[in-house]
Amino acid sequence: MIVVTGSTGNIGRPLLDALTAAGESVTAVSRNPISLPEGARHFAGNLNDPEGLEPAFRGADRLFLMIPDPALPVSRIVETARASGIRRIVLLSSQRAQSRQDPVLTSMEQTVTGSVPEWTVLRPGGFASNALLWAESVRSTRTVRAPFADVGLPPIDPADIAAAAAAALLEDAHVGRYYTLNGPAAVTPREQVAAIGHALGEPVELVEQTREESFAELSRIWPPAVVEKTLDALGTPTDEERKPSSDTELALGRAPRDFTDWVARNIDAFR
Ligand SMILES: NC(=O)c1ccc[n+]([C@@H]2O[C@H](COP(=O)([O-])OP(=O)(O)OC[C@H]3O[C@@H](n4cnc5c(N)ncnc54)[C@H](OP(=O)(O)O)[C@@H]3O)[C@@H](O)[C@H]2O)c1
Less Cβ around it within 10 Å: N or C end of the chain? Predict the structure, then answer.
């Protein structure tokens, strides 16, 4: 049995579908309820209460672990999973673990790789689904406010991260691997907004924000330290962060999907 954390999210939801389609029985962990594919059961759990997750882990041998808040008690979550019989963990980390040598991410990765015999670390760059932050303003005013309008990065489709996670949970070939995951080509925010407008069949205006304006806006939804790191990656990416990674195809067994593909599947959020 496989436990999926973050099961209501951008990665967790398609991962549930992929695992149940492969015939696996799956426990979907999240605080909120979710409509489930056949073969999955829901466990209402909070990652802030690791010991309370023990019934979700009981009888399972594999875990997809997402840590959506760096303040969560990673060591206790991993220890509860290991003590309950989990042998394989596929960890969602971030490209920043390598490209910025981020100590919080490094520590999280070491907690996992030092605890269970079988692990895979997924290190995605920015998600295509981050564009959903613009959905409300596109719906209401056909406008996007974003910083660094002409800095291009290769966004990864979260459905491709889910596909890589499914492969790592189901196949032995990915054990002990670190995979940097991103999309097939760099796309600037201006190009992303144009792609959304094209799919809508109506122009969408991009209003470029300063870093300070963006910091003030994003700090309303994310911790300030997370916002600073995000703006560093968006505004002054390293050479490594700008380039598509050859790991992505190794992890997926195919080429990753591009941003226009993600837009086509998610355009209803912007109508
Ligand atoms: N966005 C990016 O560009 C990017 C890049 C690299 C790495 N990442 C990593 O991706 C993850 C976030 O991705 P996302 O923003 O796309 O996530 P998301 O889809 O919004 O999903 C977050 C999931 O976490 C669950 N969750 C949140 N707090 C929880 C808690 N205390 N206990 C149990 N479940 C909890 C949520 O479910 P409930 O609310 O129902 O509990 C939801 O299923 C983070 O680990 C981040 O470091 C993101």
Answer: C
Q: How far is the CA of 201 from the centre of ligand 1 (A)?
A: 31
Element (H, E) at 119: strand 118-124
Query: SS3 helix, strand, coil % of the chain, rounded to 5?
Result: 45, 20, 35
CA–CA distances in Å: residue 20 to residues 2, 4, 37: 10, 11, 7
Instruction: Give 230-270 pLDDT, tens digit per residue.
Output: 999 999 999 999 999 999 999 999 999 999 999 999 999 99
* Domain boundaries along the sequence of the chain: 2-125+158-182+243-256
Q: Are 165 and 136 in contact (CB under 8 A)?
A: no
Per-residue pLDDT band at 18 (split at 50, 70, 90): very high
For the CA atoms of 243, 105, 92, 255, the dihedral, rounded to the nearest 10 degrees, stands at 10
| DSSP 3-state of 145 | strand
Give the CATH superfamily of 2-125+158-182+243-256.
Answer: NAD(P)-binding Rossmann-like Domain (3.40.50.720)
